[in-house]
Amino acid sequence: MFESVGSLAAGPWIYAVVTLSVLLDVFLPVLPSGVLVITAGTAAAAGSGAASAATGRVPHGVPDLLALVLLAAAASVLGDLVAYRLAWRGGERLDRAIARSRRLTTAQERLGGALARGGGALVVLARFAPAGRSVVSFCAGAAHRRARDFLPWSALAGLSWAAYSVALGYFGARWLGATWLATGVSLAALFGAGAAAGFLMRRQPAS
After folding, report:
1. How confident is the model at residue 157 (pLDDT cuts 50, 70, 90)?
2. Is the dihedral of CA 64, 16, 165, 76 positive or negative?
3. What confidence tens digit (pLDDT) does each residue in 111-156 have?
4. How far is 42 from 16, CA to CA, in rounded Å?
5. pTM score > 0.70 for this model?
6. Count of structural domains within the chain
7. Contact (Cβ atoms closer than 8 angstroms) between residue 78 and residue 172
8. Are 132 and 201 in contact (CB under 8 A)?
9. Residues 159, 78: contact at Cβ < 8 Å?
10. Which domain holds residue 62?
C-alpha cells in the first residue's frame, strides 16, 4: 500500500503542489489543500519507515516533514495577506457585499472585537473551520484592521494548521500503517477539528 500512497506524494513536485493549493484555497476553499498536506505527511512516514528498515537512510523522493510544515504555513500566511490587501482596496462595492451578508457582517464584528482586545484566537479558529480563513482574511481587510494586529495571528494560525495536518498524516501512518485507512482517519480528524472550530466560532459573542 505504500506504493499507492507514496506514488501520490513522492518527488519534489509535491512541495510546489502543496504550496500552490494552500496559497489559493483562501480564494477557492474547495481546493483539497488539507488532503494534500495529510497525504504528503503519510508518504513521509511510510517512506522514512521503509528506508530506516532497509538502509537506515531516507530516500530523496520522500517529503521532508519540516519543509512541508514551513511551506504550508508560509503559503497560508501569504494567501491571507493577498486576500487582506485585496479586501483593503475593495472599496464601497466590497463593503456593500459584506453588508448584504449577515454571516460576513457578524464575522467582521467578531473579528474586530477580537483584534481590538489584543486577542486573535478567532483568527486561529477560523483557519481550521471550512471557509473560515477566507471570511476572516477578507473581513479584516474590508474593515481596515491594522496589519500588525492581523498578520501575527495569521502566522500562528497557518503554522498551527500546517503542523496539525502534517502530524495527522505522519502519525496516522505510523500507528495504522501507510494505508488508505490511515489517510481516511487523518482526514476525519482534520474535518472534526474544522467542525469543532466552526462551532466555537459561532459561540463567540459579537462585539
Report:
1. very high
2. positive
3. 666 665 556 788 888 899 878 888 888 888 887 888 888 899 999 9
4. 17
5. yes
6. 1
7. no
8. yes
9. no
10. 3-203
